[in-house]
Specification:
Elements: H1 3-22, H2 29-57, H3 66-74, E1 81-88, H4 93-110, E2 118-124, E3 133-141, E4 148-151, E5 154-159, H5 164-179, H6 182-185, E6 197-206, H7 209-212, H8 219-233, E7 239-247, E8 258-261, E9 264-269, H9 271-275, E10 294-301, E11 309-313, E12 318-319, E13 324-327, E14 331-335, H10 347-362, E15 371-373, H11 386-417, H12 425-440, H13 451-469, H14 472-478, H15 482-489, H16 493-519
Parallel strand pairs: 1-2, 1-3, 3-5, 4-15, 6-7, 6-10, 9-11, 10-14
Antiparallel strand pairs: 4-5, 8-9, 11-12, 13-14
Helix pairs in contact: 2-16, 3-11, 4-5, 8-10, 11-13, 12-13
Length: about 525
């Protein structure tokens, strides 16, 4: 054997070894099956998740009772309080009651909107009263002018006149003022919107404790003595929570201008200063955080450098006699300048001013000037009469009813306009409960409801409709439009490309083999 033969023989195994190193591993039948099982598992998970995704992303839109809501909107005038006023008189009570009834009908026909929801039936004492709220008027002759008195739902009317026409005219005018005071005063923008729960925050604010030196004010004692009896009578309308605080440094956000008067100078709070009096940036007025509206009642003690701090009457150019003013729908403020004549003299006087401000903010109508609350045999006098409370109830019945119907119609309108707004069982249930409360308020003369019963149902209707309108599921959808949803789906595209490519690689050979079999 020559050398070339040996060389070829020695090189042949080397070439075979290199080829074995470069050759790709052969995929066995078992590894192909395992790969397909893995791919099948991934796609099984995807297919299982599709119904879940569909359920989680689908919008539930239950049908709302639109026809019932529109029916309530059209029938709002049918929600009425029926009042019977019984006239007691020794002389011709029937004739006087007829003349009073005719006069009240005249008032009602001239101001239909202001008398909406109130039906008054004036009868004589020999007739039977069918109304849920019955008031009694006792006519007494008097030798001189006397102030009329109310006690409960009774009115003692004193008159010097003998003419039935004059008596009926004066009594009818007085009953008009007592039954529907809103028709006289109009809509007071200082009155807060109705809320079943209210927080009353009493605050003593010292502009600078080093000079004002008012460290306490016996708040609990004066609240219990002056304010709480009034709150107890209004407990059917509101649940009150009371808190009080003392702040030792509450500076003004402006420098009050100095003005002159006949007996000296004073620091004036004109119309412009009153608008910016509350220094919200530096005064901490609320100690708790919740959803209940807050009425602030503040006693402000100016420092020595700003005394006396008085309210300036722009019309007269002189300081006002009153040390208190109201911020509409927010609260009231009393200025306390110790040692000056315009300042309150005691804690009882201060909290009496707070009480008056509170009644104005709550919408409690005052009694006419020629009417007072009579004392009981022990000499005690109620802080409010039933005439005032009932008038407030009738006002709130109308406001709550209008508010609930407005909320329900707004829900229907929004759902129709926004196709992606969900309407779940909770929203539909609250809407149905609100409608049911409104439907229960429709009464007739044969089966009337009292003002308190109507108010309770109107309060529930407003609560249900407001809860449905501000439902988090409905409101949240407004801030998550469809464009945002599509943008999130685009994030899954890179992750799904691997699954799609692997599926194509498996399906393509399968189709090729199938075509080859058909050719054979």
């Amino acid at each position: 054997m020559d050398s070339s033969t040996v060389k070829e023989a020695t090189q042949k195994p080397t070439d075979e070894h290199s080829k074995s190193e470069l050759a790709l591993p052969v995929v066995s039948h078992q590894s192909l099956s395992l790969r397909r099982i893995i791919q099948l598992a991934y796609w099984a998970v995807v297919l299982v998740c599709v119904p879940i995704w569909w359920h989680m992303t689908s919008i539930e839109r239950l049908a709302l009772p639109k026809s019932r809501i529109l029916a309530q909107k059209q029938a709002i005038e049918d929600i009425t309080t029926h009042i019977d006023i019984v006239i007691h008189s020794d002389n011709e009570g029937t004739l006087i009651s007829q003349k009073v009834a005719a006069l009240l009908d005249t008032y009602r026909s001239s101001e239909v909107d202001l008398w909406q929801g109130i039906i008054v039936n004036v009868i004589s004492a020999d007739m039977k009263a069918n109304g849920a709220d019955v008031y009694h008027v006792y006519i007494h002759p008097a030798n001189s002018a006397r102030t009329h008195e109310v006690q409960g739902r009774n009115l003692n009317f004193y008159t010097q006149h003998n003419s039935n026409d004059v008596i009926a005219e004066k009594l009818g005018t007085l009953l008009w003022q007592l039954v529907n005071p809103m028709s006289i005063s109009g809509n007071d923008n200082r009155v807060i919107q109705y809320s079943p729960s209210l927080r009353l925050s009493f605050s003593l604010l010292n502009e600078d404790i080093h000079t004002s030196r008012q460290r306490g004010w016996a708040a609990e004692k004066n609240i219990n003595a002056v304010v709480k009896p009034t709150l107890d009578l209004l407990s059917s309308l509101h649940n009150f929570t009371i808190e009080s605080q003392v702040q030792y440094y509450a500076p003004l956000a402006f420098e009050p201008p100095k003005r002159q008067k006949s007996d000296g100078s004073y620091y004036a709070l004109g119309e412009d200063e009153l608008k910016i009096f509350v220094n919200s940036a530096e005064w901490t007025l609320s100690s708790e955080i919740n959803n209940d509206p807050v009425l602030h009642l503040i006693l402000f003690v100016p420092s020595d450098s700003h005394r006396p701090l008085l309210i300036h009457d722009e019309s007269s150019g002189l300081p006002s006699d009153s040390p208190a003013f109201i911020i509409p729908q927010w609260g009231g403020i009393v200025l306390f300048n110790p040692g000056f004549i315009q300042s309150p003299r005691s804690g009882a006087e201060i909290f009496s001013l707070f009480r008056t401000q509170l009644l104005t903010l709550l919408g409690v109508p005052p009694l006419p000037p020629n009417v007072k609350i009579s004392s009981d045999p022990d000499g005690a006098t109620e802080p409010l009469s039933s005439w005032q409370i009932d008038a407030l109830l009738r006002r709130r019945i109308r406001e709550n009813t209008e508010g609930s119907i407005q909320a329900l119609t707004s829900i229907v309108k929004l759902v129709e306009e926004l196709k992606n707004m969900p309407v779940g069982m909770d929203v539909k249930g609250e809407v149905l409960q609100g409608i049911e409360e409104l439907e229960k308020m429709h009464t007739t003369e044969t089966s009337p409801l009292s003002a308190l019963e109507l108010f309770t149902r109107s309060r529930h209707a407003l609560a249900y409709s407001s809860k449905a309108f501000f439902n988090p599921g409905m409101v949240g959808q407004l801030y998550f439009p469809a464009e945002h949803k599509y943008a999130i789906y685009m994030l899954f595209a890179p992750a799904s490309m691997g699954l799609i490519v692997s599926l194509v690689r498996e399906v393509k050979p399968f189709l090729s083999r199938k075509r080859e079999k058909k050719v054979e």
